[in-house]
Amino acid sequence: MSEEITIEQVANQKKPETAKKSKKGNKEPKKSFFKGVKAEFKKIIWPDRMSVVKQTTAVVVISVLLGAVIKVLDMIIQLGLDLIV
Predict the structure, then answer these.
(1) Distance CA 7, CA 10 (A)
(2) Which residues constitute the domain of residue 82?
(3) Distance between CA 54 and CA 44 in Å, rounded?
(4) I need a surface site. Which of 29, 37, 40, 79 has the fewest CB within 10 A?
């Protein structure tokens, strides 16, 4: 038959030694900030030149088109307001 474990038994169990917090004297030396930055930059996968050109072109074209749509809507609204007033 299976044994049942009570809440008190679980609460009284000792935690493993690795789970304890380290004291001030046992700290590992921290890495230099710049060494960490350099290590992170090595992990970056930079895009190739052609994909950067394509993405930049897409952003510029969409921005110009959106600007044109906003300008046309602004002109229509302005025309409507001029007719009302």
Answers:
(1) 5
(2) 46-85
(3) 20
(4) 29
